[in-house]
C-alpha cells in the first residue's frame, strides 16, 4: 500500500494533496482543449460544450451537430442535450445541480433534473439588443454581462426576476468575477470588473472605482467564501487581496510569458493557475508548486478544493486537512499517529501495541477522535479502514467513550465510498458531503436515475424513501412503452404499502405526458382526496374534482373548486353541477348571501325554492330606503309565494307587512315621524301613547289583533303615558280579557298605589292570601285585614299585625277580636 | 395533578403563544396590528398587550372598524381566512392604504388558523397578493380553563345549522388531529348526531391520509404518534343538534347566570361600573385588553379559575351562591380579626403581613362577586325571569306544553325580549318533536305582530335550523324516520332527564345545574363513562349489567330514541407498536388517569360544563378517568336563537 503522504506537496509551510479520483475519464478522441468545461459544485456533474470560438476538424455532418454533454466526474455520459438554439454565452451550474444555459440573445434555460427537462426565461433589460457577453455563476444565481457592459443578476431560479445592477463605464471589460450575495458586504451580489487599468465593484445601487491602478488585470477570482480576491496582472503576477479590499496579502510572480488560461481558487487558501498543460498552485505568502500534465487540463473549483480534468484523469487538489496532517505528517508528535502505529502493531500481534497505548494513555480520547475524523477525510479505502481500526482499538481501551461519532463516521464513509464508485461518479469529500446534506445527495442520485442506490442509502441513513419511489414511478410513466394497464399494475404493485407515496405526483407526470387515462387510474390510488383536486381541475375533470373536494371535507378546497367552476361553466350548468351536492349548494348559498345575491336569486329560481327566494327579497326590502321601493320588493316576494299552498302564512304576513307599511306612512304624515319599522303591537302602543285610540283600534281590526293583546298594549301604553284617568275609566268596566291582576301590577310598579288598589277587589279569581299581599303592597294594611277577616284567616291577621303601624294596629287587633269572639 | 396528566391544556396555550410571537417577531420593527374582533378575546387570553408591545406592536385596530392608519410602515393583519367576506375586507384595506400612498407599506397577513386557497385567490383578484407576506398562524384550541378547550368559532352555530356550512367541522377535525398527533390516536370515538358522525369520519379519514403522507422511516416520533394513545381513553363527540333544549334553557349556575345577564366573552365579562365600582385596582384584571376604545362606563372583569373564590362559586347553583358568599365573608372577617389579636410576636406579625396581599385579593374578589350576585338577584326576582323559567321547568318536567301557551302569549303581549320568547317556543318545539300546526301559526303571527314583520326571516331561519318546526302530521313516531327526532317522553324516562328530588346545596346528581332537568347531552356522556351510576339511577332495582360494558352498551335503546346518527368506532394501531407502548407505560391500571375528551360540536353552554365537571369530580373520586371538554365555542340560548334573529328593520330612519 502506498503511503498516504505519497501525493502530498508542500507549498510554503502547508501541505496540499492531489488525489487521483478516476482514470480514463474521457474518450481519447475528444479534443478537450476545444471544449468549455464546467462542473457542478459538490463534485457534481460536468457539462462540456464545444467552444465555438475555436477551430475544430471537420468530422462529417454527424459530429458537427452541437450538443451539451453532461458527464459524471468519472466520465460517464449522463445526458446529451442537442443544441441548436444559438450561441451559448454562459454555461453554469447551481448548487442543486441545475444546469443553466444562457444564449447570446438573453434566453436562459434552466435544466433542473440532468435529464433535459428545462424551464426557460429571458433576461430582458436590453439583453436581446446588446447580446450577452459572458456569465458568472454562484450557488443559486448568476450575473450576465451584456455587450454594453450592463450587468443583469438573477438570484433564484424558482421564481427568476432578472435585475439590472448599477451601470459601470462602457470601456471594454478585461476580466470579471462576482462575490456571491451570501459573502458580500452589501448582502447582494457584487460584480468586480477589470476595466482599463483599474477595477470597478458594481452592486445593485452603484458602481465604484476601487482605484487599483496596477491593471489591466487579466483574471479575477473570488475565493469560495468571498474572503479573498485574486488578480492576475498583465506582467504575470498574482495578487491576493482581502475581501474587504483593505490589505494586499501576497504576491506571486509566475514568470510566465503567456497569460494563463484560467485562474481559480483551490479552497480558500490557494490559487490555481492553469496553462494548457501546466498548473501552478500558489499558496499563502506567494509560495507555489507546479504540476505538469501531458494533456490539456481544465480547472473546476469547488468549495474546499479544486478538480482537475484531462482526457485521462480526474484529480482533486485540496489542502491536507489538519487532522490528516496530524496523523500522517512525518515527525508528528500528536497522540493520533501513535495510536495508528499501535493498531498496526496489534495486527502483527506485537506487545508493542500495549506499550504505545500506555504512552498516550492520557490523550487517548483525543487520539481516537482525531483518527475518526482523519478517516473521514481519507479517500483511500485502505487507510480509512486502518484509521477506523485504530480508533476502534483506542476506544476499546478507554473506559468511557461516546461512540456516536465513530458510528456516524462509519455510516458516512460507507455512503461516500458507494457514491465515489466510478459508475456513480460523485467523488464527494467529507466536507462537501456535510455541506451538501444526505437529502440533497439522494436528490442527486435520483436525478441520475440511480433509484436503487438512493433507496439503499435512504434506508441505511433512515431517510424518507417515498420521494424516490414517486420519482421512479414518474420516470416509468414517462418513458415506458408498455400499455397503460400494465404500467399501472407495475407501479401499484411496487408501491403498494409504501407509506407517503404521492400517487398524485405520478399521475401528474402521466398527465403531462399525455396519458390522461393512466393519470386518472393512478389518481384513484391517492389516499388524500384533497391532493387529487388540483390535478383533476387541471385535467378538466371538474365534477370529479368537486366530489373529491367534498370527500376531503375541506371547505376551502370545495370553495376553490366552486370558484373555478363558477368562472368556467355557464350559470345553468353550474347550478346543475352543485344541485345534487348539498354541501356545495350550502357553500354557494352562504357566500353568495353577502357577495352575489343575484346569483342566489337565480339559484333559488332554478331550484324552485320559492320560500328562500321570497326571503331573499324580503331581506332586500329591508335594505331599501323608502316605503315605496320596500313595498315593490315585498310585492315581488309575495308573488313568488302566491301559487303555493304551503306558504299561506308567509304570504299573508307579507301582505300584512305591505299594509302596515302604508298605514305607518300615513301616520307619519299626520302624527310625526317614528312609525316606520315598528311592529303592529308597537304601532298600536305608540298610537295609544299619543292618545289616538281610534287609530289604534283601526290597526287592531285591520290586523285582527286579539282583544287580549290589545288590552295588554293599551294597559302598558297608558301606564307609560301616566294616563290615570283613562285607566280609572277602564277599572269601571266589568270584564277584562286579561284579568285585572296585570292592571294592578303594572300600575303599582309605576308607583300609583291609589289607582292600583282600585283593582284589588276586581281580582276575584285570586286566592285570598294573594289579595292580602296586594293590599299590603299598596300600603293599605287595614284593607288587607278586612280581606283576611272576610276569609276568617286569623294567622294572616297576626302577620299583618306585626307589619302594621299607628292606628292600623288597633284596627287589626279589633279584627282579630272579631274573629275570635264568635268562636267563643 | 394526576401523574398521567400528559394532556395538559397549558401546553397548548404555551405553544399557541410561542407561534404567535414568533410570527410577530418575523416582522421587523414597529407595526400596527389589525385584528378581527372575534380574535381579540382569544388573543387576550394568550398574551398580554404589554407583551405584544414588547414584540413591536404599536397600535391595535379592529378589522371591522376599517380605520388602520399609516402611522407605521409595517401592518400586520391577524384574521380568520375561512370566509370570503373577511378576506375581502383585508384586501380592501390594503388597497385603501396603498392608494393613500404616503408610505410604502409593508403588509403581512397571518391567517388564523390556516392559509386558504380561496384567500389567495381573492387577494390575487384584488391585486394585492404580491404585496403582502402571507403566513398562517395555527391557532386552533384556546384553553379557557384547565379542563376546557375552545376553538372560539363564534359563527359556528349559524354556519353549521343554518347555512349547513361544514367549515367548523373541518376545523374541529384539524384541531383534534393535532391533539392526536401529540398524544396518540383516540382509541375509541363515540358520538351522537349527524354532524358528529361527519366529524368522526373526517378524523378517521385524516388519520389514513396522515399515515399516507408520513414518510416510511422506521422509528420516527410521528410513527409512534399515530398509534392509539395511552393517555387518552376515548373521544366523545356530541352534536349540538342532538340536544338543543339544554342550551335553550336558562342556565342556573352562577357562571351561567353571569353569562345570561352580562355575557361572557373569552373569560371576560363586561359589567356596568356602577355595579362593581370603577377603577380596576389590580392591573392583572385589565391589562392586556386589546380594546381600542377608552375605558368607558363598562368595566371588564376577568372570569377565570385564577380567582379562587370564583372557582368555588362558578359551578354552583345560584340558589346557594348567597350562602357561599356569606360563609366566605364570615370566614374572612373572623380570620382577619383573630390575626389581629394573635399578632403579638414579630414573627407572627411578619407572617400575617406576608399573607395580607392574599387577604386583600380575596376581599376584593368577595366584594366583586357580592355585587355581581346582588345584581343577578335583582334580575332573577323580576317576572321577566321567573315566568319564562316557570314555563321552561314545566316543559322539561313533561307537562303538556299546551298549558303553557297562555303564559307565552301573555309574555309576547308584554313585549319581553324576543330572544326569551323564541327560546321558549323552540324549547317546546324541540322537546315535542315540533308544534301543532295551528299553535305554531298562531305563535308566528303573534311574534310578527309583537316584534316586527322582519321576523318572517327569523322564523324561517329557525325552521331551517330545526328549532321551530311543525309536528309531522303522521301518527307520531311510527311515521317519522327513527333518529330524525328525539322522543323526549321515552328518553326522559330511560335516561331520567327530570329529577324531582334535586338538591342544589349538596348536589348528588347533575340535575342540580338546572334545578331539576338533567341535560340530555351530559346524560349521554354519562351513559358512556358512568354506566353503573346511570343504570342504577334509571332502574334502581333492576339487574346490574355486565361490568365491562363499553361504548353505547346498555343505552342503545335510549340512543335510538334521540335524533342523529349514533356511532362507535375504534381506532387500532399496528399491534407491535401498541404492545411497545404498553410495555413502555407498564401494563396494569387500565383506566386511572386516562383522559376522556368530550367534544361538543356546535357549542356547549356553561351549565353543561358545570354538570360535566360534576361528573368529572365523581369519576376522579372513583380513581377513574379525567374529562377534558372541548368545543367549537361556548354558547347560550340567546346566542342560539340569535343566530336566526334578523337584525334589520323596515324603516332605517328610526
Automatic annotation (TrEMBL), chain A:
GO molecular function per UniProt: actin binding
Domain Vps16 C-terminal: 501-806
Keywords from the named record: Protein transport, Transport
Listed GO CC annotations: endosome; HOPS complex
TM region positions: none
InterPro entries attached to this UniProt entry: VPS16, Vps16_C, Vps16_C_sf, Vps16_N, WD40/YVTN_repeat-like_dom_sf
General function of this protein: Essential for vacuolar protein sorting. Required for vacuole biogenesis, stability and to maintain vacuole morphology.
Protein name per its UniProtKB record: Probable vacuolar protein sorting-associated protein 16 homolog
Organism: Glonium stellatum
From TrEMBL, chain B:
Organism: Glonium stellatum
Stored PANTHER family: VESICLE PROTEIN SORTING-ASSOCIATED
The organism's taxonomic lineage, starting at the top: Eukaryota, Fungi, Dikarya, Ascomycota, Pezizomycotina
InterPro entries the UniProt entry points to: Sec-1-like_dom1, Sec-1-like_dom3a, Sec1-like, Sec1-like_dom2, Sec1-like_sf, VPS33_dom3b
Family: Belongs to the STXBP/unc-18/SEC1 family.
Segments passing through the bilayer: none
GO biological process: vesicle-mediated transport
Protein name: Sec1-like protein
